[in-house]
Amino acid sequence: MSVTATIRIQEADFDVAGEIAALSQGRTDVGAVVTFSGVCRGSENGEPIAALTLEHYPGMAEAEIGRHADEALARWPLKGLTIIHRFGRIAPGENIVLVVTASSHRQAAFEAADFLMDYLKTNAPFWKREESEKGTSWVDARDHDDAAAARWTKP
Question: Is 79 within 8 Å of 120 (Cβ atoms)?
């Protein structure tokens, strides 16, 4: 059975439990479902954050995420894959990103979700701006995120 990833980039919020149910409901071939849900924090380095604004290049973002989803499907025996990433203004406590991987066994589901989140954190074509009492500023890439993503390219 060929697996096709569900990829959505949207401004609207999403229902984590509903997305898990949509991917796994009625499936007897799925023994593990792993989810990662990224939520907007209310502070960074002790400084309050009023909101994040995420921007993307429509079409390019979906294609790039699709390319990495296809790589995950090729590397691990997944039975299902959903990736949702929001854009626009996101307040603390609101959802930003969701990755749901389903497989027969947990290791494949965990590794695929980890791989995809490392990619989304470091290379997905999104630009993030923080709003705080001090004003707005673009968020730079972080070395520890790059190091985490690099482990997937090692021989």
Answer: no
Helices in the chain by DSSP H: which ranges? 16-24, 60-75, 106-122, 143-150
Rounded to two decimals, the pTM is 0.89
Contact 47, 92 (CB under 8 A): no
CA 33/CA 116 separation, integer angstroms: 14
Q: Which of 4, 10, 14, 9 is nearest to 102 (CA)?
A: 4
Reduce the DSSP state of residue 148 to 3 states and report it: helix
CATH 3.40.50.1820 holds for 6-150? no
Give the three-class secondary structure for 39: strand
Residue-wise pLDDT for 2-32, tens only, equals 788 999 999 999 999 999 999 999 999 999 9
